[in-house]
């Protein structure tokens, strides 16, 4: 069934959000709160639950010293925010970046609550961050930052409390250090305290590529829904890190044509398709995508406005805004990153009838496989990669259909449908548990 038949374009606009100031548009927490308010109003959520679910339940800020390689001492700032633990332990990544802020971590934590609820897994939402530039730090410095940050927030972590995972600037090695530091303090190995670990430390097969895998599944579902063929389906990906490179590779393997890659230091374009496997090898060797011989160098920001069937931002927040949304020429926007689109841009995308697969649905493959990892660690029994991926395919396809059905039944756009579905589920659990006072 074609998308226009499901949702009349006039019903898709989020007009209440037009009141956002330019600063609020670019502040992820304000953007998240505006969407929450809009969805909560549509749900007629009672005012008490509205207040409970709108705020994070716990915010931790730590300033901690680390010995640097040159013998000096630096003090770093880290955050861990629990947005909701109503449906289960807090779950969410840890980000290392120079511009991490409390508002960003708050927004990311609340998106985790909604994301876990959209795919209906028994976790709440949490997120962490440390202000640092991992590209400028040695392995030794990164290890010392990670261990000390873990020690500072240790009483709030645990398989039944809060289970971190990788995010921008962190990887399976970071998770191994967190797991070891936590285990040393507990005097026993506790591998279920983090997910996204190396497989030999209790990680799940399939976890590294899981977010990309989930993105490929929802792209397939969107093509089926919109009656578009895979053959000739052109894709542009922004960000060639964990999420973007795996999504690009898996889509290319399925027969999609990846024509553009936008990275921090430059863009690549080839109308006949970029050899993604070769680009992965090239990036590993040179630590950059620039200079790759199989494509032409183009402006990384302009590349987002090139004609394609699927635009897949997989880098960071606020890359599709009221400033560039009108110039997008994609049919589908599939959000690999968290919060890549501002609320004001959403209205413009609705006018252009761009089919949006919102972040809290599209990139949920990572947390879903993290859930599988946590389950396997607690059972002490590990699944094959194909068992993991089969379960992941099932959850992603079912969640895609849940959101589309919700959008159709409530005459709202896909993003608001995903928020409404999630808020409804978290509100139901919160109401059933009652307020302890
Ligand atoms: P990563 O650090 O592995 O990769 C991010 C890549 O984006 C890097 O290569 C970086 O150079 C590039 N980048 C940063 N800013 C850019 C810009 N302005 N233009 C072009 N490229 C830019 O991080 P990741 O784990 O792949 O995460 C990417 C996004 O996906 C983040 O928003 C993250 O929160 C989200 N996400 C990650 C996961 C996961 O499992 N890792 C799951 C869900 C969502």
Q: What's the helix-strand series?
A: HHHHEEEHEHEHHEHEEHEEEHEHHHH
Ends: how far apart?
49 Å
Cofactors and ligands present?
nicotinamide-adenine-dinucleotide
Please count the helical segments: 15
Please give the CATH class of the domain at 210-362.
Alpha Beta
Q: What is the CATH superfamily classification of the domain at 210-362? A: NAD(P)-binding Rossmann-like Domain
Regions with little confidence, pLDDT below 50 for 5+ residues: 1-15
Tally the beta strands: 12
Looking at the structure, the CATH topology of the domain at 210-362 is: Rossmann fold
Name the features:
single chain; 437 residues; alpha/beta; Rossmann fold; seven-stranded mixed beta sheet; five-stranded mixed beta sheet; 44% helix; globular; disordered N terminus; binds nicotinamide-adenine-dinucleotide
Task: Briefly characterize the structure.
With 437 residues, the protein is an alpha/beta fold. It has helices at residues 3-6, 22-26, 28-43, 47-54, 102-118, 139-152, 172-186, 210-226, 242-253, 276-286, 343-351, 359-362, 365-379, 385-410, 414-433, and strands at residues 58-67, 73-84, 90-97, 125-131, 162-166, 234-238, 257-263, 266-269, 296-298, 310-313, 332-334, 355-357. The longest helix has 26 residues, at 385-410.
